[in-house]
Write a structure and sequence with these properties.
It contains six helices and no strands. By secondary structure, the chain is mainly alpha-helical. The longest helix has about 30 residues. The protein starts with a helix and ends in a 9-residue tail after the last helix. The protein binds fe (ii) ion (FE2).
Length: about 190
């Protein structure tokens, strides 16, 4: 086989590898002077990987809604969904950097996030505004619940400042949940 064709075939094979098939989550820890035991730092970093992954997943879901919503109230919902995306994206960087401050590795590529997130798959066939509001509210509620659980977990592990850090994120994330749920009929809200 001519070398050019061989190269093209190799490239084709490489690109047909399933996305995420080689994705790794790194749990390496770097020593530092933060006044917590190595064991506590490791446990706290492990807890924080989940909200990091879910923040990135949720951000992309909010952007999906922002880009693809149609119908009545298009423009208003287009802006609301973008606002959710902005608020959540603003939380991702500090979560990632809190992990690295404690000596961990922030596993925050899109593929790592897709592997680790437990947020439900976004219903990508959704078209109408209120259906997007409901779908995004479900995902955002899951993210908010995970922030609360993470706050409790790191408090139990023995890192109160990181628990307080999560508490600040919860207030902003739950404000976005309130904005979404306020678009729904009262009967949609439990
Ligand atoms: Fe936009």
């Amino acid at each position: 086989m001519p070398a050019v064709m061989e190269k093209a075939e190799k490239k084709q094979k490489k690109s047909s590898v399933a996305p995420g098939a080689t994705t790794q989550i790194i749990d390496r820890m770097y020593p530092n002077r933060v006044a917590l035991s190595d064991d506590i730092k490791k446990q706290v970093c492990a807890v924080m990987q989940q909200p990091l992954a879910e923040g990135l997943d949720l951000y992309s879901q909010a952007k999906f809604a922002h880009w693809n919503v149609k119908g009545d109230n298009f423009y208003q919902l287009h802006l609301v969904f973008d606002h959710v995306a902005k608020v959540i994206f603003k939380q991702v960087d500090p979560i990632a950097e809190r992990i690295t401050q404690l000596g961990g590795v922030a596993n925050g590529t899109v593929r790592q996030s897709a592997c680790s997130s437990t947020i439900s798959e976004y219903p990508v066939e959704t078209i109408n505004g209120m259906d997007h509001v409901r779908a995004l509210a479900d995902s955002l509620a899951h993210y908010c619940q995970n922030l609360r659980e993470s706050s409790d977990k790191v408090d139990d592990i023995g890192d109160k400042p990181t628990s307080d850090f999560f508490n600040q994120l919860i207030v902003d994330a739950e404000e976005q949940l309130y904005f979404l749920e306020s678009h729904l009929e009262a009967g949609d809200v439990q």
